[in-house]
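Hello Y.,

Per our agreement to keep a running log of every chain we model this quarter, I'm adding this entry. I've kept the format consistent with earlier entries: sequence first, then predicted structure.
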Amino acid sequence: MPFETLLREECSNCTESSIRTYTYNIRALAKIAGHDRVPMHSKWLNKKLLAEVKKLPLGQYKKFAIAGQKALKAYGDSRKIWAQAVRDSGEKYNKRRNTQKRTKREDENWPEGGYKALVKLAEDLREDIEYILDKAPSAVSLPELYKLQQWFVIVFYSKHALRGDLAEVQIKKRGSNYIYQRDGSKDWNIHIGEHKTSKSNGAIDFKLDPAVNTALKEYLPYVKAKTKHGYLLSTKRGASKMSRRDMLKMLRNLTEEKLGKRLGVQMIRVLKTTDSKVAINEAAKLRRELGHGARTQFQYVSR
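Predicted structure for the entry above:
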């Protein structure tokens, strides 16, 4: 019986995206411990391994502490050392984030212009794919489709700082994650019913930014003509459905090649939030003045 079966039994209420994330991180933790695959016993999750994990950068410490705790639960092991590490790393992470200072990794990968660098990159990529858009959708090659896809992904993330769920979005209204048009509307919306915090925060559903909407209208006919899997994103070879992991890898590699900065979705989310810091700080200031929480403040807006 593979370890993932144990994990799924323990985490029966977890979303599929969470299962994939936990599985990937537990495998990475096992490699740190010197194993080619995740063992079917819990002995490897020992104090020595935890000591090594604590030496890692804080973000990795937090990630692997959660992985260790999840693995212990899957094994049915009641030891608390990894749960304590989750609390410790979480407190340290929140303390650092509350300072609103860039981490070393953020500082090294911060592009000139901040979040707006993605808008400029989208414009540059558009110039590179103009010749492809002049072709009939059925006439493009798979490498050309992949180039169109790279452009679309950058356009999307230059406006919407979604996590890695874009890789799970279907082009028809089915499943949990999909794009759709409301009755009588030509504009596109996106619905993310399964994501990291869907259990606590519900589905993410919003109208696409005009720039993304326009890009989607240009990109979608090529997806429909060259693929059959029903999802927005495809692999470069074979045009099969692209995994979340491969999409994130594509995003990091593309931004490193074009911007000299390796941007993943977490970094993009930090960039977008920082770009909105004035509005966020003003909203926080108003909440303190009125003595409201975020939900109550929203309810007090009269249109």
